[in-house]
From TrEMBL:
InterPro entries: SecG (IPR004692). It comes from Roseibium aquae. It is a multi-pass membrane protein. This is Protein-export membrane protein SecG. It holds the Pfam family SecG. The chain crosses the membrane at residues 51-70. Coiled coil: none annotated. Involved in protein export. Participates in an early event of protein translocation. NCBIfam families: secG.
Length: 121
């Protein structure tokens, strides 16, 4: 579902960019003014303006849809919450193993293991 919405979103983006670039500049900043053609200037402007408005609404709808899809997917809330354990399994938070966060994993690694050398006096 997400892939389909992304593909539609990208097609809308490309069409929106194309329609905006086809529109005639009102200020003529670059001195490039289109002229001639089969459709009058006013008719072309109306078609391109309506197409831009339609594509902008479609762009916002697909953007909202993608954000809702991303929000509702089952993923860990943070990449730091799912650190793999030494045996390759991912600890589940709240299972009694310290929460399974990255800080807990680092604290376990910093605990000395094996025989200890007494501190120098």
């Amino acid at each position: 579902m997400e892939t389909v919405v992304i593909v539609i979103h990208l097609m809308i983006v490309l069409a929106l960019v194309l329609v905006v670039l086809l529109q005639r500049s009102e200020g003529g900043a670059l001195g490039i003014g289109g002229g001639g053609g089969g459709i009058s200037t006013r008719g072309t402007a109306n078609v391109l303006t309506r197409a831009t408005a339609f594509l902008a609404v479609a762009f916002f709808c697909t953007s909202l849809g993608l954000s809702l899809i991303a929000k509702n997917e089952d993923r860990p809330s943070s990449i730091l919450d799912a650190t793999p354990a030494a045996d390759g399994t991912v600890p589940v938070p709240g299972d009694g193993n310290g929460g399974g966060g990255i800080l807990d994993a680092l604290q376990e690694q910093s605990q000395p293991s094996g025989p200890q050398v007494p501190a120098a006096q």
